Amino acid sequence: MNPADEHSEQIDNCQHVLLRCFTNLLDFYERTGVKEKIHFHDRLHFVRPGGAVDILKPGWLPAPAHLIGSLLMFRGLTLTDKYSILTALAAMRHERQNPRLDNITIAHWLTTHGATEKAVSYFWRPILISALNEELERVSARPAFHVFLQGVMKNRASYQIGIPAVPLSELYPLELDNRLGENVRVHLRSSIKHIDPTDRVADYYVSAVPFEYINQLIPSLQLPLERFEHSPITGIHLWFDREITTLPHAVLLNRTIQWVFRKSANYFQCVVSSSRSLLPLSREKIIAMACCELGEFFPVALDARLIKAHVVKETRATYSSTPGLEVYRPLPTTKYPNLFLAGDWTQTGWPATMEGAVRSGYQAAEAIARATGREESFVLP
Length: 381
Ligand SMILES: Cc1cc2nc3c(=O)[nH]c(=O)nc-3n(C[C@H](O)[C@H](O)[C@H](O)COP(=O)(O)OP(=O)(O)OC[C@H]3O[C@@H](n4cnc5c(N)ncnc54)[C@H](O)[C@@H]3O)c2cc1C
Description:
alpha+beta, 12 helices, 12 strands, globular, binds flavin-adenine dinucleotide
């Protein structure tokens, strides 16, 4: 049954989106035959409390300036705010190689580069908090640069947002092993207790578990992971008796909810990244907050009747890209010649994203090929 149906019991934990610049994820979707299930959108709607909408979309200028025309039209920002954004974007391109970027937060970098308060709350924060799942005051400048240089400015299409038209269970289906080739077997709900790379049961091992499990699985590895922390994401699923907006998705400015996705005429999914403030709150309080905030942006919601609601708190949603973490992200190779690591937290050059996860798998595959004496490349630029 389609989750958009209010009687459906199946919902995703939270809306997952990708950017057109997620080249390896798109390659993976191609290999598994689901690429056409991703629908790309070239307009991002920034909605202010009260309902006014500013649209980020490409103009006639070539990349990296393709979005500037629409940014200059943003009515929620003053000329000074816009000037501060443009100078910071230009500075990012010049400072991209600065080795100190991983030692400072992006909040610090923006402050020292003249970002105005409104430019931060109406532009930098909504983009970065969703892309990096972390507060600007806690997140390293390095991945923040990556989001803007690879995502927003790279080429005319790289910022486009891809939204799966199907639930995650259809995007990553149970029969994935059939799609990946006849030699692949997936054993679901089978927890690995321990890997001993020296036992020779298998020729090669790849671990793709999250960072918090790796040292338990293979205690002899003893990876220095003390600096890794989690950051939560909360998904709030609301079914109303009517359509509260026709926008397919929207960035909600300066409130708790950062994004809302219209899943059907009456089903809306709200996303709160870095949702630490929501963790102690009850389901009822979170739903009341969400309805109240939606009413501020889409006044129709004030009169709408809530039919059904779900709150999904993912407390360990992603690792947190805090300053100084980069050097602790391990390579795919380990001290064992037959053991390899994958996972979005390994050294992929990308923040915690589905793209980072696929890159890590491709990197591990390349490392295994090398271990067998073959040079193969899987990672796409
Ligand atoms: C709510 C939420 C929203 C997100 N939204 C986005 C988004 O919009 N865009 C985006 O790009 N990314 C998003 N992410 C991040 C993205 O999902 C992750 O970056 C990605 O899934 C990481 O993939 P991974 O393979 O490294 O780890 P995981 O997806 O965490 O996979 C690790 C797997 O290891 C399994 N495992 C753990 N221990 C064992 C064991 N002992 N034995 C066997 N198996 C084990 C786990 O069950 C799990 O299936 C979101 C994450 C969450 C939680």
